[in-house]
């Protein structure tokens, strides 16, 4: 059995999972458990009503320019790492490395961003070569899909106590995972502009990735080229539009914050309450703005 087959067999052995989850059916093994992704958890934190519209009711939403840009640039970056030839680049001078990195970027509407990324990656390669660490230049995982099941105890969160313990399914695609000195460094790629207030959000996203890595079954890790002995030491994020890159040691309190948010989401399902969190600066950009009665009433006040 190859790696893909073992991965599929492992996922098939898990309980079915869904966003249309009913806690009252939890004890019935034929009923699906709750599915949570980094995006769905972030959507709930942003606005419970938007989560309801998007994940439970599955209402359609128009693709915005930001969404299209994100998809295109993520595909470009994934292809860059698939195509970059380390051995070929090792014999180039610095100018040639930059030209090579640039040549791997498609010329399209987002070429200005791609040029920034090419310059960043060329410099990173030049630095790794000077440190004799080119074997760590490419990510060990490039757009890797992870699945896992975790238990959220009823009393995990003092603020959001649950009626019982719950096993939930977590899932996500991690942009990149690098390895340095045997330790894992998950790295997120963002195509919007960096703002300092996003730091807490980014830490929670990276902690969600760490949660996935630490709880993924062996078959899932194997499919991504990892093993159980590999641990996350740092995490980071890159915003090329703002030419901003940040790396830090993984923070335990961020992991606690993620699990607290998961408990809060589960409690919303228990109470069947997904209220609107209206704030004009963010709601005006929501693709469900026209469907949200609360948001529209607020705009007329």
Main sheet attributes: strand count, strand direction, barrel closure: 7 strands, mixed
Which ranges are low-confidence, i.e. pLDDT below 50, for 5 or more consecutive residues? Answer: none
Shape: globular
Q: Level of helix content?
A: 40-55%
Tally of helical runs: 12
The rounded Rg comes to: 21 Å
Strand proportion, as a percent range, falls in 15-25%
Order of helices and strands: HEEHHHHHHEEEHHEEHHH
How far do the termini sit from each other? 63 Å
Q: Quick check: average pLDDT?
A: 92
Number of strands: 7
Structural class: alpha/beta
Number of domains: 2
Helix/strand layout:
Elements: H1 3-13, E1 17-18, E2 33-37, H2 38-46, H3 48-56, H4 65-83, H5 86-90, H6 94-103, H7 111-130, E3 141-152, E4 166-180, E5 183-189, H8 199-215, H9 218-223, E6 234-239, E7 244-249, H10 252-271, H11 280-283, H12 293-299
Parallel strand pairs: 1-2, 2-4, 5-6
Antiparallel strand pairs: 3-4, 4-5, 6-7
Helix pairs in contact: 2-3, 6-7, 8-10
What does this structure look like?
There is one protein chain. With 301 residues, the protein is α/β, with parallel strands linked by helices. The chain folds into two domains: 194 residues, no CATH class; 52 residues, no CATH class. Helices cover 46% and strands 18% of the residues. Strands 1, 2, 3, 4, 5, 6 and 7 form a seven-stranded mixed sheet that branches. The chain starts with a helix and ends with a helix.
